[in-house]
Amino acid sequence: FFFFLTIYTLSGQAKLENPSFEDTPSDAMVPHGWFMCNESTTPDILPGFWGVNLRPSDGSTYCGLITRPDGSYEFIGQRLTPALMEGECYNLSFDLAHSRSYAGYNQEIQLRVWIGTEKCQREQLIFESEKIGQRKWKNYRIEFAPKDKMKYISIEAYSPSTKRGNILIDNLSGVRLCKRV
User: Fold this and answer.
1) End-to-end CA gap in the chain
2) Rounded to an integer, what distance in angstroms lies between the CA atom of residue 75 and that of residue 83?
3) DSSP H helices in 58-148
4) Over pLDDT 70: what percentage of the chain?
5) CA–CA distance, 28 with 44 (Å, rounded to integer)
6) What secondary structure letter does DSSP report for 15?
């Protein structure tokens, strides 16, 4: 019984590689374990660049994403292992903050989290934040149910109008099955 319960529990979550974006602080670099979804722009591994010095909420580094006046934005993703199953309830948590100083990309913007069947596909929106303006980390927890078998998760900086904005993200949890009561 314990063996089957362990297998069910482990199969009920999708682990993320490098969920706290741990890597060498760098500008214009995708953190290890993640891939860029927008070929024209890359995120930053912070703190230490562009005037961003907020301490991480977990580990040594975090990811900074920006939007630009020309409509471009930073967008990263990762393959989920195992894939998320259609109709199951899952939860995910992460920390968000905003930097008042980010090389001129200082306006408040939003964050979107997508899941999809293909790399970088924005098939199902599972989270869209309000404008993030707090300069201290705040934890966000979401629940969602995939509409199909989903293999990828993507995170994008978002602004409905073209802005020079930033958002900081750290401390993602694994994608876990909701607890049944």
Assistant:
1) 20
2) 20
3) none
4) 92
5) 5
6) B
Residue 10 has pLDDT above 50, yes or no: no
How would you classify the pairing of strands 165-170 and 62-67? antiparallel
Distant-in-sequence, close-in-space partners of 3: CB < 8 Å, separation ≥ 6: none
pLDDT above 90 covers what percent of the chain? 85
The residues, ordered by sequence, that sit 6+ positions from 109 with a Cβ below 8 Å of its Cβ are 66, 67, 131, 132, 157, 158, 159, 163, 165, 166, 167
* Strand pairing category for 44-46 and 62-67: antiparallel
Contact 114, 124 (CB under 8 A): yes
Question: How many angstroms separate the CA atoms of 144 and 153, rounded?
Answer: 13
Question: How far lies 28's CA from each of 8, 25, 31, 168, 171, in Å?
Answer: 39, 10, 10, 14, 20
Confidence label for 142 from pLDDT (cuts 50, 70 and 90): very high
Q: Mean pLDDT across the stretch 76-87? A: 96
